[in-house]
Structures are given as structure tokens and as C-alpha cells.
Amino acid sequence: MSHLDQAFERILQGDTKAFQEVVDATSDRLVRLGARMLGSLADAEDVVQEAYVKAYQALTAGQFDGRSSPETWLYRIVTNGSIDALRRRARRKLTSDEAVDPGYDGVASAEARLALVEIEDWLGQLPPDQRATVTLKALEGLTSSEVAKIMECSEGAVEQRLVRARATLRKLREGSHDEN
Amino acid sequence: MTRTDEILDAKLQRLADATAELRARPGFTDRVMVAAEAATAPLWLESVSVSARSVFAVAVLMAVSALGLAIHSDWAATEASAVAYGTMEVDWQ
């Protein structure tokens, strides 16, 4: 049983202080996932904080059924939260032209800042579910099976989204080359 | 795999490497714990207010019954005092 499994078990038995151990052990990975998904560290922290609150409520209410591992379950909450945030952002962009605030606050290196901007410009052109799939597979380095568990779909659906995403990215690259 | 695919994969790998060191800002865990504990308080209050609502409904029902009973008792007492149990003729001479 992993340290995270043990912490989950303790929370389910009423030891809510064990939740801090869960946050300490997973926040860096989840915030990194959110930042890659949203192209912004500030937005990622908002989404991840919201995800932890949902997880805490579910755990203290005894609603975690253990069908997924704690990591997969937390990844799923953050992925779904990020997809919702991307959809909200797309709706807002229809009415205003605001740019994404990467929210660096001096904690990210210059290279990471530029990479987040590049991710937002590039992957931001994909539909949210395709962007999430590409992020989990190519940036997080997960297997198709792991991505399928997180996104609660079949491996076939994951592969299909990747094929579509690659086709869009290929077209974008060819388009930008035609312009140059 | 085409040349374009190789370029896409290389770009994705470069972006993954460049963002590998990203982490939450200092104080993030504390903010999460405060938010999580604050978010569970309304759940507790909600359960109290749900119980309070049922207690309130029972109390209203009991109050209405008590009022009805009081009105009925008052009416019965008035009737009882008005009933003549026997009459006596007084002869005024």
C-alpha cells in the first residue's frame, strides 16, 4: 500500500489531518498538469485548489469508492476541472479579447514561462478534450491505458483523439509554413 | 512516421522538458487546507439547518394543535358555565 493509499485510508476513517499529506505529496504534479493544460500557473492553482476541495468533501463524506487509485482519481478531478476551465475561457473569449495570465510570480524559470506561452498558443487551438489527451499523453508521459482511466473512456477513444489532435497540429504547422 | 510527425513529437518533448520543474507557489498547501475546511463548514451547517427545518415543522404543527385545543377548551368552558342545571322560580311578593 502506497503512502497516498494509507493517507486516503486514514481520511476515510475520520483523520482529516491526513489530507494535508495528500496535498503535500501531490500538489506539485497536479499544478504542473494544470499549468500544462491551461498555459497558466495561476489558473492551474485555482483549478487544483477547487479539485482538492471536491476531493476533501468526497473523502470526508465517504464517497471515494476506491475503484481508481488515489493518483488516477486526483488526476481525473484536475483534468475535468481543467477541461471545464478551458470551455469557460472559450466562452469568455467570444465576448472579450483578454489574454491568459500565466501567473508566474517569480517561481517559474524563464524557459518554463516561454514554454507555457507556447503551449497556450499551440495546444490552445485544439478542442479541450483533445488538448487534455495530448497533455496527459505527450507532456505528462502517461500511457494510453492510464489516460483512458483518467478520462473515463476507452483506449480507442484516446487514440482517436490523439489522431485528430495530431491532424490539427499538422495542418497548423503546414499552414504556418505556407504563410512564411 | 512523417517528418512533420517527428517535428511535432520533438516540440512536445521540448515543451514537456521545459515545464518539468513547474510547481505550486509557496503557501499553496495552506491555502488549499483553509479552502477545504471552509468548504466543509457549510455542509455541517446544512445538515443542522435540514434537521432544524424538520423540528420547526413539528413545532408549528404542535403550536397549531395547541391553539385549536385552547380555543375548543375555552368554548367548552363558556358553554358549561352558560348551561342551567336547574331552575328555581323566585316568587316576588
Give Rg of chain B in angstroms: 40 Å
Radius of gyration of chain A equals 17 Å
Q: Helical content of chain B, roughly?
A: over 70%
Structural class computed from helices and strand pairing of chain A: mainly alpha
CATH superfamily of chain A: PhyR, sigma-like (SL) domain
Q: Helices and strands of chain A, in N-to-C order? A: HHHHHHHH
Count of alpha/pi helices of chain A: 8
Question: What would you note in describing this structure?
Answer:
The complex is a heterodimer of chains A (180) and B (93). Chain A is mostly helical and 180 residues long. Helices cover 76% and strands 0% of the residues of chain A. The radius of gyration of chain A is 17 Å and the shape is globular. The model of chain A has no long low-confidence stretch (mean pLDDT 90). With 93 residues, chain B is mainly alpha-helical. Helices cover 76% and strands 0% of the residues of chain B.
How would you summarize what this structure contains?
With 180 residues, chain A is mainly α. Chain A is 76% helix and 0% strand.
Q: How is the secondary structure organized here?
A:
The complex is a heterodimer of chains A (180) and B (93).
Chain A: H1 3-12, H2 18-38, H3 41-60, H4 70-95, H5 110-123, H6 128-139, H7 144-151, H8 155-179
Chain B: H1 3-18, H2 28-82
Please give a handful of descriptors for the protein shown:
heterodimer; A: 180 residues; mainly alpha; Butyryl-CoA Dehydrogenase, subunit A, domain 3; 8 helices; B: 93 residues; 2 helices
